[in-house]
Amino acid sequence: MIQIHGRLCAVYGCPIAYFSNHDPLSELISALLSHRTKNADSHRAFQQLTHQFPTWQAVRDAPTSEIECAIASCTWVEQKAPRIQQVLHLVGERCQGKWSLDFLGEIPVPEARAWLESLPGVGPKTSAAVLSFSRLRRRALAVDSHHHRVAIRLGLIAANVAVGASHAILEAQLPEDWTAQQVYDNHEVMMLHGQRCCYYHNPACDRCSVLDLCPFGEARMKQV
Questions:
Q1: Rounded to the nearest 10 degrees, how much is the dihedral formed by the CA atoms of 178, 181, 182, 185?
Q2: Confidence at residue 224, expressed as pLDDT on a 0 to 100 scale
Q3: What CATH code is assigned to 2-15+142-219?
Q4: DSSP tally for the chain: helices H, then strands E
Q5: Whole-angstrom Cα distance, residue 58 to residue 56?
Q6: Which CATH superfamily is domain 24-133 in?
Q7: What is the pLDDT of residues 56-75, one digit of tens each?
Q8: Counting CB atoms within 10 angstroms of each CB, which of 54, 119, 196, 214 has the fewest?
Q9: pTM: predicted TM-score of the whole model, two decimal places
Q10: How far is residue 218 from each of residues 146, 150, 161, 189, 193, measured CA to CA in Å?
């Protein structure tokens, strides 16, 4: 993993700047909107939602149909709107109306992830995203579909390991002394490699910087 990480960092440029500066609650809602949705569409939905409703309490208490209209650029709005309101109800109850998840920055990462994953619709990817991508900047590895595909082809995880289960396996492969920034970089370079080289269809193995470390790529190139 370290060798792979080093080569990909050389290609994509590390450290990579964080793309978000949301507070953790905002990052949680943004992540819920992003499920099975293109980034541009979920971003537009988040912007419209926060423009239309001044507070998360207002989102919680609004008619669900109004939330559906606000997030219309997302997929599955009929599922996401009530789910977001359900999550906000639970956050309001558990945080005694403070509407802040900043406390997640003060407890151990495993506890913070367990707290988040106790909420409906929140799995390993979302909990990692909230802790890593938000302004908490905690050490948690998120794995998206591109990252997952690249990891399988490189032999880092078995082909039958699902995205959710892959989080613990891949994070365990990272050095324990890595900083949150290095863990974030690992997610980013694996994702970028999947987007820009290791495509789902017709991967560009001939220009892959980790080809000699990739069982899938080497086998494929022998067939060309």
A1: 160
A2: 67
A3: 1.10.1670.10
A4: 12, 0
A5: 5
A6: Hypothetical protein; domain 2 (1.10.340.30)
A7: 999 999 999 999 999 999 99
A8: 54
A9: 0.92
A10: 19, 14, 21, 20, 16
